Description:
This protein is α/β, with parallel strands linked by helices. It is built from 10 helices and 12 strands.
Amino acid sequence: MPGINRREWLALGLAAATLPVIPGASEAASLKYSLNPVPIAPGVWTIYGLPEPITSKNGGAIANITIFDTSEGTVLIDAGPSHRYGEALKAKATELTGKPVVRVYLTHYHTDHVLGATAFESGTVSAGKTLTADLKRVGNDLTNAMYRVAGDWMRGTDVPQPGREAAEGVETVGNRSFRLMPLAGHTSEDLCLYEESTGLLFPGDLVFLDRAATTPDAKIDTWRSSLERLKGIGHKMLVPGHGPVEAGTRGIEQTWRWLDTIEAQIDDGFERGLDITELMAVPLPAWTDGIAVANYEYARSVMHLMPALEATRLPQTERA
């Protein structure tokens, strides 16, 4: 079968015979996400993501996912990294609330947050216009990449097709009111939600806490502007895309400091003429010692952000 990729092999059930790095059929059947919802407010639970990179061991379960019980049904904020995760999430959420899932809000198009949405009816999945367009534009590439990294965890996963538009304003679901704020910076559209009855703020991956922020699609100045707006929201508790739920603005401030730190360090290395390998080896400041996967994400950010510096600051030669 010429041209077939790992995702297609997995869909055909042939991975064990042809790709020995992927678990065999019996092992694949035993792959199971351990979902442990933690109460954070009355009728609200968060499933914490692991403070790790995506690997074949964790199945990509690294993002925080939140479950709301409402008088109309269950509401989810983000859906996890795979169809398998989405199915487990649906079962766990229904067990907690005794009600079907009626809304799944997707905060941005990164795979650890959205691919589980394929386990839900399209009409319940809500995303902003730009996020939906991003999924159409790059969803297949991102999903294929997850198949390569996470292997059999991804069986049955495809690109989500949100059937509802998450536009700026307030949406009421039963006894819950969600203020929707489409922002940007971490990606081209980052949906932030504020639930009015609990005072819970959900900034998606605009905020990381005690885990280094990822930057593959970042526009740093836009990200800072979004963080400035988040500072002005009088929330009781903040639920970051990654990291612990807590009161206050520590997550906003830490994310801002991380962005300042890596941007300044990369800029300084560029000005000193360091190549990418040399720049990756530059130590981070001591304050980052308590930040999970800091060195890993810093190295990735060097690769993400250096090309833009080179494009804008290196002399351009004209072709004859």
